[in-house]
Amino acid sequence: MTSLAGSSGIPAWALAGGLALLAVLLTGPVSALLARAHWPSRSPRAALVLWQAVCLGAGLSLVGAGVVIAVEPLGHNLATALITAGRSLLLDGTWPAAVQGWRLAAGIASAVIAAVLFSVLVRSAVLTVRRRRAHRQVLDLLTRPSVRAAPAGTGPAATTHERDAVLAGAVDVSILDDDRALAYTVPGWHSRIVLTAGLVTLLRADELTGVIEHERAHLRSRHDLVALPFQAWAVTLGRIPGVRAARAAAAGLIEMLADDAAVTRMASAPGGPDRRRILAGALARVALAGGAEVEPDAEPAGSPVAADHGPGPAGPSGVAGRVQRLLQERPPARSTAVLTYAVALVLVATPTVLLVIGWR
Predict the structure, then answer these.
(1) CA 185 to chain centre
(2) Of the spans 3-7, 126-130, 207-211, 344-348, which averages the highest pLDDT?
(3) What are the start and end residues of every segment in region (Disordered) (predicted)?
């Protein structure tokens, strides 16, 4: 490939090939290794940012590779090439003659990939909003105020009274008459925290506090918006192993973040270590009772007991891994987090900077 501008830089064929290779590496071995790693449990927020960067970097690299092939004859970088193409379309009313045949096909393929990724995200967001609205309407008919959560005779009087005291102050919680031990959130302008009667009668008052704070953390941090891109692209690109790994890992990391927030905000519970044991006990108790992940509108930010997303039954982001993480109380790996943020920045910036620097 030769450039009209003849600038000094990376050869266009090498740039396109490098971007394509980067996309393959990010969606393949990099995602596989990151999904098996255990360090994210110590720095879940940084790990989640890294997963976002891996997905975004892979998409930018794949689209960028096709764009380089398509517009390479029009300039020495993306900006000059687009200016040349725009001038030809606006002034001459014709598509640049240099972009024909296989170059045009590469450009169209890149545009289609970008359009599919964006349209799937938008469509998923619209459908999610509609499902949440319908779900809230159903909940308004089927749930009851939290102050009436614990039916009489479901446990010792003191235990029932303590649960009632917890739920009396939880005006944002609704109770669903269901014997299963489930909890989930319905995010949005009129958000809901839904607990089943089975969950309420299963847990002690302090454990119930931990579960409620866990669900509130999902709503405060809008974890549904964080998870939406992973879910949307998994629907369309679920055959790609890296996309499936990204969705599963993101769901587990989001649950870890909610666990940490719940422990921090359990002000009425005893000291720090006890708070972690209380929440770990709630997770284990619900899991042993057969509690499962509830995804009313395909959102992972739902239940205090997340599906096991780790490499095995005791994976780092599964229920057993989360319980172990809470009991170990290992301090955050600050140096690892800083390095992770730096790597995430590099992954997103690399394809962008290469397109700006250009080719020769």
Answers:
(1) 16
(2) 344-348
(3) 294-319
pLDDT for residue 294 is more than 60 = no
Q: Read off the tokens for 59.
A: 């998409």
Q: For residue 205, which of 242, 142, 155, 134 has the smallest C-alpha distance?
A: 155
β-strand pairing of 183-186 with 173-176: unpaired
Instruction: Provide the residue ranges of all domains of the chain, joining segments of one domain with +.
Output: 1-100+334-360, 133-329
- Comparing CA positions, the residue from 360, 357, 347 lying closest to residue 78 is 357
Torsion angle (degrees, nearest 10) of CA 241, 244, 245, 247 = 160
Q: The pTM is what?
A: 0.83
Amino acid at position 17, single letter: G
Q: How far is CA 225 from CA 13, 21, 86, 222, 248, in A?
A: 37, 29, 35, 6, 15
Q: What is the mean pLDDT of the chain?
A: 81
Question: 12-25 vs 334-357: helix axis angle to the nearest 10?
Answer: 150
